[in-house]
Amino acid sequence: MHSVRQIAQEIVAREGGYVNDPDDPGGATNFGVTIHTMRRLGLDLDRDGAVTARDVRKLSRDQAVGIFLEHYFDRPLIADLPQALQPSVFDMYVNAGGNAVKILQRLLVEMGYAVSVDGALGPQTLAAVRAAHRKSPDDLVDAYGIARRNYYFRLADRRVASRKYARTRAGGKGGWIKRAEEFISPRYHLTKQQFKQRTAQWG
Questions:
Q1: Which domain holds residue 68?
Q2: Per-residue pLDDT at 119 exceeds 60
């Protein structure tokens, strides 16, 4: 099992460097840290009195790792989840904020646990996820990864501009889907044909 810092470093590597895609609601982003996050944290790196895209460009890899550890792992209580589930939920929290927890909570509801879908890891959710993990640890990790993949598909179903993140121009799996499947056992990965069928409605 990798250390939490190693997981954060892998997330930073996966996110890549500076981008400012007009189709991405996150806006200017560097190593996965968005301009919105930097404004919320007051990270005016060039000290000009405003957090702009220039500050996002100045963000270092180590600073991004530190942000993720404090604000996307420690504060949301990802550390209180079963260890096997932490990497996928942590990675998704960086990618989608509280929606990462909502995906887990909806999964627990489907499994019969009484939890509120509020995006926060409180005592109720933590007790339920620990109980589910004790029953079937491997299945829970895969189920979360699959639910995460389905979340990405639904985003692309609803928003045409987001489809390029789920499917490449050549018709293969896009970054979102590959990212989700990194945390799913290979036997549950979509085949080329299954992926093509799932995305056929996009044209």
A1: 1-75
A2: yes
